[in-house]
Amino acid sequence: MNTATPRSKPLAGSPLEQQLAADRAAALAITPVSRETEARLDRFIDLLLTWQAKTNLVSLSTLPTLWSRHVSDSLQLLALAPAARIWVDFGSGGGFPGMVLACALADTPGALVHLIERNGKKAGFLREALRVTGAAAVIHLADIEDSVDRLQGPVNCVTARAVAPLHQLIGFAEPLVRKGAKALFLKGQDVEVELTEATKYWKIEPQLHSSRTGGHGWIVELDSIERSTPPTDGSPI
Q1: H-helix or E-strand containing 172?
Q2: Cα(22)–Cα(28) distance, rounded to whole angstroms?
Q3: What is the chain's mean pLDDT, rounded?
Q4: Within 13 Å of residue 80, how many CA atoms lie on the same side as its CB?
């Protein structure tokens, strides 16, 4: 009986491998990193492609543009918080942006990324990614709201990508932002709709940054969060 682990890594010379190589070059031109970070990211992506066959980490349609759609999209956050050393990533899933940030910060003294993930299989992938990359991270297998209450020490920046509606993310991040953290949330083309909904519950002054990787992506930056008067229609926060 064949007990080999299924693999989705592209075969050498295959069209997907060629697409990935071209996309890698384009992505790293947009968000350049050190050679050491490139090596860590290569190991991370190699592992992700192996695990993708048994655990759905990213959409299959995005595999040819894995570097630009996911890696570079994550790396761009560093420019918005260049002094940040302690990061918290909500719902880290396949490692975006948290594991990518941890790879980039691995050589920075005092840097650490808290990766919060409730799914056991995805947390297992993150643990293996941490092992093979030597990234600066710690993994929390827990719900977001439970982990926020348990975090010890200062937090400089909070991130999330494709995890929950903006008004919920703001609620999760509020205790950390109140203590001085910055929030950077990666959002899609419906960001204005999400912001309108969020202002029903929260007093915020968001800064919007267009994604450097193209498409319709946005980054919502928040430096302060205050709770508004609770809604009277019974809507959940």
Answers
A1: helix 166-178
A2: 10
A3: 92
A4: 28
DSSP conformational letter for 229:
P
3 state DSSP class of 170 = helix
Tens digit of each residue's pLDDT (9 = 90 or more) over 55-107: 899 999 999 999 999 999 999 999 999 999 999 999 999 999 999 999 999 99
Whole-number percent of the chain with pLDDT over 70? 91
User: Rounded CA gap, 8 and 94, in Å?
Assistant: 15
Instruction: Give the residue carrying structure tokens 């990061």.
Output: 87
Angle at 161 between CA 155 and CA 163, to 5 degrees: 100
Global pTM?
0.91
Residue 118, beta-bridge partner list: none
Phi then psi for residue 136, to 5 deg, are -90, 85
C-alpha distances (whole Å) from 25 to each of 19, 45, 48, 65, 66 are 10, 14, 18, 11, 11
CB-based contacts of 213: which residues, under 8 Å, 6+ apart? 27, 30, 68, 69, 72, 73, 76
Torsion sign over Cα 75, 182, 119, 161: negative
Q: What share of the chain is helix, strand, coil (3-state, %, to 5)?
A: 45, 20, 40
Sign of CA dihedral 33, 97, 101, 129: negative
